[in-house]
Every structure is written in C-alpha cells, then in structure tokens.
Amino acid sequence: MSRIINTENAPAAIGPYVQAVDLGNMLFTSGQIPINPKTGLVADDIAAQARQSLENVQAIVEAAGLKVADIIKTTVFVKDLNDFGTVNAAYEAFFKEHNAPFPARSCVEVARLPKDVQIEIEAIAVRS
C-alpha cells in the first residue's frame, strides 16, 4: 500500500502530482525545482538553485521519516550542461555535509524546466 508524502517544508506541487509516494520500503520524490518554500522565490545563481533543490528533496525525504543517507538514486535535470561543474560541487558538498554516501545519479540537459529554473532534482530513497 502506498502513502502520499506532503510537507510544507518543500514547494507545493504545481500540477497534478504529489511531492512523493512512499511504498513502505521505497520513497520516490517528484522532481524538485529550486523554489524556496518559505518565500516562493528562486535564486539566480545555479549553485544556489542546486542547493535549494537538494534541500527540497531533503525536506520530503525527512517528512517520510528517512534521511539524506537513505537516498540511493537521484536524477538531475539541468538547463545547461556547461553548469555541470558548479552543480557537481554543490551536490558533493550537500551530501558530505550530511555524512551521506553519494547515491547513484544521472544528469541530463533539458530544453526547459518549469518556471524556467535552471535545475530540477528527483530522488529515490530506501528504508533499511
């Protein structure tokens, strides 16, 4: 049986989807764009956008009773693959700050993202 995860600590869904679905042993988040859930604003800087997207994923994972270290796979969508180095540095710092192992990851360039942001990140987490 699945359970819908919803938290005010991450941006509300802007379409017909949920923040995450918890299947008991696995959690699947929807893609998180870098909207600050408190202000509704998006930073201009790609590093700040990457960090905010990861913090939004974290909020959802924690709302499901898991932690960053339980994330086993992420998919990163970027508007410009030339930003890969900057995104990679922010991503690495985020997981190191949480003493979490790096998950498996895919990173792809896309033509456009919702609200014209520069990045979107989704995750899969597993309960041990």
From TrEMBL:
Residues annotated as transmembrane: none
One Pfam assignment: Ribonuc_L-PSP
Annotated GO MF terms: deaminase activity
GO cellular component, one term: cytosol
Domain of life per record: Bacteria
InterPro entries, sorted: RidA, RidA_CS, RutC-like_sf, YjgF/YER057c/UK114
Family: Belongs to the RutC family.
Protein name: 2-iminobutanoate/2-iminopropanoate deaminase
